[in-house]
Amino acid sequence: MKIHEVEEQLGISKANIRFYEKQGLLCPERKENKYREYSDVDVQRLKAIVVLRKLGIPVQNIGKILNGELDFQTAIHENIAQLETQIEQLEGSLNLSRQIAQEQEAKLDADRYWDIIQ
Question: Fewest C-beta in 10 Å: which of 77, 80, 92, 110?
Fold first, then answer.
């Protein structure tokens, strides 16, 4: 299967496919004309990569998961912890933004909000 066929089938860009190849996550066969030829195994691996990226798993961990160097459940639990931390940070940012909006500040009082953040 050619790269444009994979792009159409999975709905991801050629640039993303090439990025995953450059990261060593995907190694399609190259024909004599240097064109990439994606096997069914390559497409399945690419699907797994996309799913893991949608979960927020870092690219460096995806290779380890797919190569059996990192336990999938361990990676998922680490990911949950990271996502929960991000949610807490975003909730803090949202709450402070709401507070500033309610107070209808005309300009930023960095010292005041610095103290609140701390």
Answer: 110
